[in-house]
Design brief:
The protein is mostly helical. The chain contains 3 helices and no strands. It has one domain. 91% of the residues lie in helices and 0% in strands. The radius of gyration is 66 Å and the shape is rod-shaped.
Length: 185
């Protein structure tokens, strides 16, 4: 082989052949194995590679469709959640308003009851005061009457033991006393 290479270089030296351009017979013999490799590649490797790429594309498309479906479900869930939240807020507002109205009604009822109770207490107190006043007047009349009768007996010098006479004198005295009080007031 070395001798052939030397012979080729020697012949090339005479013809000025470029070492970068191969000889035509080398191109021919290089094209045959290249054609065999291309044939095997396109016959056996490319179909398997195409099947793998198609399968991968199908997986990717399936993943995309699953992602789109999941995104649609998430959007529907978000919309449902938003609707439930809005409904819950509306219900909470309604419950708050009902509670405020009920509180106002209870407050009004309590005020009315308190007013009635206050009126009843005032009326009871007025009745009690009036009863005590009447009792004081009766007690005062009897005590003042007894004192006035005794005093009048001492002044007049005669006994006022007669009840009818005593009552007339007491009534006249108290009437004069009330008239004097009203005149001064």
């Amino acid at each position: 082989m070395t001798q052939q290479a030397i012979a080729i270089f020697a012949a090339a030296g005479e013809e000025n052949i470029n070492p970068l351009i191969p000889a035509p017979f080398e191109i021919f013999w290089s094209l045959i194995p290249l054609a065999v490799v291309f044939f095997v590649f396109f016959r056996y490797v490319m179909p398997k590679l195409g099947a793998v790429l198609d399968e991968r594309a199908a997986l990717i498309e399936g993943g995309i469709s699953k992602a789109e479906k999941a995104q649609a479900e998430a959007a529907a869930a978000l919309e449902e959640y938003t609707a439930q939240l809005t409904e819950a807020r509306a219900e909470a507002a309604r419950i708050r308003e009902d509670a405020r109205a009920e509180a106002a009604q209870i407050l009004a009822e309590t005020r009315v009851k308190a007013g009635h109770e206050a009126d009843r207490i005032v009326e009871t107190a007025n009745k009690q005061i009036e009863a005590e006043r009447q009792q004081a007047i009766v007690s005062l009349r009897s005590d003042v009457g007894a004192l006035a009768t005794e005093l009048a007996s001492k002044i007049v010098g005669e006994s006022l033991a007669d009840d009818a006479r005593q009552q007339r004198v007491i009534d006249a005295f108290l009437t004069d006393l009330e008239a004097n009080v009203k005149a001064e007031g």
